[in-house]
Amino acid sequence: MRLDKFLVSTGEFTRSTAKDAIRAGRISIDGVIATRPEVKIDETKCDVCVDGASIIYKEYHYLMMNKPAGYLSATEDRKDATVLDLLPDKYRKIGLFPAGRLDKDAEGFLLLTDDGALAHGLMSPKHNVEKVYEATVDKCLEDEDVTAFREGVIIDGDYKCLPAKLEIPEGHDRRLGVTTVTEGRFHQVKKMFLSRNKCVIYLKRISIAGVKLDFSLKTGEFRELGEDEVKQLYTKAGLQR
Length: 241
Ligand code: URA
Prior knowledge:
22% of the residues lie in helices and 24% in strands. By secondary structure, the protein is of the alpha+beta class.
């Protein structure tokens, strides 16, 4: 990879600030000051330093965001703010996109990555990846709703959903349902509850493929996933890491 491209891939530089840093003698490769932006490096092996500090190369990036309501799960929009607007510059420059959608009014775990294969694997219906949602609804949930979810409710007129788990935790007036679904149709969870005549008034995703939302993240905050979490996602997406 070209040195300047490598520097841009870290998110710390643009093409032009990378060139400036190289010309200013701030970048070294394996201990030797670099002079040419176009020099080729093996990004997996070379020790590239900026002002003497090593850069750890990452081919891909994985962020867990606790999405707030009011933001679109998109990379750009002419009208509305998107989840990328919540990221600092460093992360906005590296081509992250949301792997799977959350509605504008929904909150919770949104995975942002530049790893297309992982995103594809997680969203593919072949892999039945489990997503867990907390849904607050406008009426009391009944045991019949649990059975109906288990058997597969009908949405979109004639589409029979795959079996889904629905739990009604104690102490929430039976207006909180925790559901585990393996599909991702447009407004899937809201439509599933609506098929039972319950309107979702608040929706939050709390887990994807067994990786749980970090509850220390306030809405709008994010953190990088740990290696174990990435591995777990890879496994569930049918990929090797
Ligand atoms: N199901 C929905 O209805 N909305 C979401 O944002 C995600 C799943």
